[in-house]
Design brief:
The protein is an alpha+beta fold. The protein folds into two domains: about 40 residues, no CATH class; about 180 residues, Jelly Rolls (Sandwich). The chain is built from six helices and eleven strands.
Length: about 250
Amino acid sequence: MSYYDKKYIKGDPKKYDCKEDCKEDCKEEHKHHCKFDDYKNEHYGKELELDVDQAPSVPVTTTARPNLLSSTIATTEVCVDDYCDQVVLDATVNWQPAAFDLGVALEDLGDVLGIILTILTGLLSPSGIFVPIAVPATFRIWRKGNKSSRPVLISEKVDTSGIFGLQILGSGLLSIVFSQITTSIHAVDTDPDKGENEYFLTINLGPFPEGSILFDLGATPPTAETIAASGITLIPDNVTSHTFTALELGSE
């Protein structure tokens, strides 16, 4: 394998300069690659056609501030040859929230439920309250390219893991087990930068409806608390497996 091939596989930015570099006096190690490009353009150039109806369009407007260091599940990159090319992105993620410890024993559950009803009655207001029984997750695909000073949002999808069952530990304490979920994302980056484009797949907790509360059943007496104070999180460690691919499609 030549040096150029190795750089090509790694997505070297010079990939899109190949024909210009080789037009007159191509180096020996580049010749077979340029011939392959000519063959590909001759035989396959018109067999691929992509038509996209995608909303919202790229770039997606968002107020989210990505923390790629702590929320990234997977990364992939492609080197785009032409300004008119597009990148097809596909992701499949298997994920499951961690079990939620209720902090209460089975024999005390009846008394605790009565206290919860009392708390809910006291919290009722004209706007109402919301007690979630599922964990929502937001998956996002971001792009970092040559022209972008900060990550650009390409796609955002929300999925939910509901309650799978109630686990009774050996100590008699109860915990909620959530379902394992498979989430699939298909998106197209219709305006990638020419050259290197790196894509990040991230996971974050939420969104929850406004006014959502949970209960700290381990407190004496049990108390209501906000989602932020509940200790529920979603991080890459909650992902059991994933596949993330990026395919560049050129245009004539």
